[in-house]
Amino acid sequence: MTLMAGIVLAGGMPAEAAERHAAPCPASGRVTQDFGPAPSGFHYGLDIANAAGSPIKAGLAGKVSSSGSSGALGQFIVVTHSDATKTVYGHLRKRSVGVGTAVNGSTKIGEMGATGTSDGRARLHLEVIDGERVNPRLKYNCPR
């Protein structure tokens, strides 16, 4: 789903205002799937593709609250931020930080990969949880 100027996002903030206040995107690359309806059901994250091994940064300060492997996400990291929101980073090739590690926005937390349920192309699956899963663009200024 592509956001258009004037659309109001969760929290009552217009899309363009949310992006002005958003942190840098945790990864560089091309968005291959946005938050929203998808053929296989609702997609609760933002998928950003780039070369395998591309660095993934925290984007925002926080503390690593979970790190491991799951079937769908593959290798993943969860960072909890000071406002209690959480960012989930999935499909990682490598995790560079462990549980309890304090990170700032520029901390490299891992590398882009294709682990978990994947079509084999490297990407970052980025989710934001603020009581419920919300559009990551509310927190991060990622490419269109």
TrEMBL record:
<dbReference type="Pfam" id="PF01551">
    <property type="entry name" value="Peptidase_M23"/>
</dbReference>
<dbReference type="GO" id="GO:0016787">
    <property type="term" value="F:hydrolase activity"/>
</dbReference>
<dbReference type="InterPro" id="IPR050570">
    <property type="entry name" value="Cell_wall_metabolism_enzyme"/>
</dbReference>
<dbReference type="InterPro" id="IPR016047">
    <property type="entry name" value="M23ase_b-sheet_dom"/>
</dbReference>
<dbReference type="InterPro" id="IPR011055">
    <property type="entry name" value="Dup_hybrid_motif"/>
</dbReference>
<protein>
    <submittedName>
        <fullName>M23 family metallopeptidase</fullName>
        <ecNumber>3.4.24.-</ecNumber>
    </submittedName>
</protein>
<keyword id="KW-0378">Hydrolase</keyword>
<feature type="domain" description="M23ase beta-sheet core">
    <location>
        <begin position="42"/>
        <end position="136"/>
    </location>
</feature>
